[in-house]
Amino acid sequence: MKLWEGRFDQPTAPDADAFNESLSFDKALYRCDITASIAHATMLGACGILSKEESDKIVAGLKSILSDIEEKKLAIEGYEDIHSFVENHLVKRIGDTGKKLHTARSRNDQVATDFRLYVRESALRVKETVRSLIKALLALSEAHYDDIMPGYTHLRKAQPISVSQFFNAYAEMFLRDMDRLNHTYRSANVMPLGSGALAGTSYPIDRNLTKELLGFDSVTNCSLDGVSDRDFVAEYLFSCSLIMAHLSRLAEDTILYTTEEFGFFEISDAYSTGSSIMPQKKNPDIPELVRGKTGRVYGHLMGLLTAIKGIPLAYNKDLQEDKECLFDAEETVLKCVGIYAEMLGHVTLKTERMEEAAGSEFTTATDIADYLAKKGLPFRTAHAVTGKIVRHCIEKGITFSDLSVEAYKEFSPIFEEDILSVVDARNSAASRTCAGGSSPSSARQSLASILERLKSL
Ligand code: ARG
């Protein structure tokens, strides 16, 4: 039975029904819907709007529906949406008293409440997966303080860095993502129930009691806004999008570093794939899929932002479009982050190859310029002198460590014996000891700080 059929002469056309329905996807809200209805019925009883017996009967009926769904004794099907499904089944179970559940409530404030309950839980689910990814990154960071690799800008070798610093960088991004999910949780944690269809209700309800029963922080302050606000969905999708942006960058680095050309990382066979024609191939399908799926999560954010644009106050059916995008974004992020955390546990670092790469292509040029500047030469002049040394080496087909002290002195009399240790890649990385720097000691401090902040998220 439709919740609204009284006014209609004719049944809805089957194709209109199929187009309008949301049960096929909002069934994911069954637990939130029943939980919110239990709180609502309890409040109606406490306020004397329903008798204690009626309220108890409704609550018991709702609980039996919930357990039957969870025990797979009751399939969610056959109605327009999850709200109609639950209410109809309640009436089937407890008779006319069930028809009182919807007193002082509309599906508009009901669905807004259900979805906020869902988003709250989902934000925590995603946050915990991100935590597992950070832990996997930190395990690699911890194992590789004393190893060095080239750091890149413009994807050209720039300066030697501690390998830890590479993993710390991603851990920092994901820490911010966790924090953003906490914020998303807070945005969702406001209760719209009591807003009615749009204008509130004349029944003497106690919104605070329902809020307490559902564990919300506060109640919405304006009924029109309460039923039509979906900012929290946009925020959730943005949080997911940024997680995917960060993960996609990590995927790109992983793909590059596992190429024959770089050869820094090796993904174990268990997380790699092959080619149907080229027997030698070992392909990074997992990072590639993660990079690709980023697009669909961004798409959901754009879809939702576009759907809510230009909707007149207050509730309009357009808002039903807030759900599938979020469910798919959640599933995608959970899968991508989850598999990445697992895969990182199966990545081997080829540290010798990384160290060798860290020391080639003049990655310590900045150190030479800094050496001269620290001995009094203005930095710009020191930069120019070092540039000439680089050119000289390129022309001769040699590198900094092939030059003698005398050869250095020809470029500037400031050079002394100690220049030979300055051009060493390990010393270069070790010298950047400022807070947040790329030396092993700074990377170790960064890691300690990440671990500390992770505890409080
Ligand atoms: N399935 C609807 C949604 O998700 C539930 C609310 C229906 N409200 C209404 N006035 N038709 O938005």
In percent, how much strand structure appears in the residues?
5-15%
- List the domain count as a whole number: 3
Q: Tell me the Rg in angstroms.
A: 30 Å
Cα end-to-end separation: 46 Å
Largest sheet: 2 strands, antiparallel
State mean pLDDT (0 to 100 scale): 97
Bound molecules: arginine
How would you classify the helix and strand content by structural class?
mainly alpha
What is the total tally of β strands? 6
Total count of helical runs of at least 4 residues: 19
Q: State the assembly state of the protein chains.
A: single chain
- Shape descriptor reads elongated
CATH class of the largest domain: Mainly Alpha
Folded structure, characterized:
With 457 residues, this protein is mostly helical. The protein folds into three domains: 85 residues, Fumarase C, Chain B, domain 1, CATH 1.10.275; 249 residues, Fumarase/aspartase (Central domain) (Fumarase C, Chain A, domain 2, Up-down Bundle), CATH 1.20.200.10; 59 residues, Fumarase/aspartase (C-terminal domain) (Ribonucleotide Reductase Protein R1, domain 1). It is built from 19 helices and six strands. The strands form three sheets. A two-stranded antiparallel sheet has the order 1-2. Helix 3 packs across helix 6 and helix 4 packs across helix 5. It starts with 13 loop residues before the first helix and ends with a helix. The relative contact order is 0.11. The mean pLDDT is 97. Arginine binds next to helix 6.
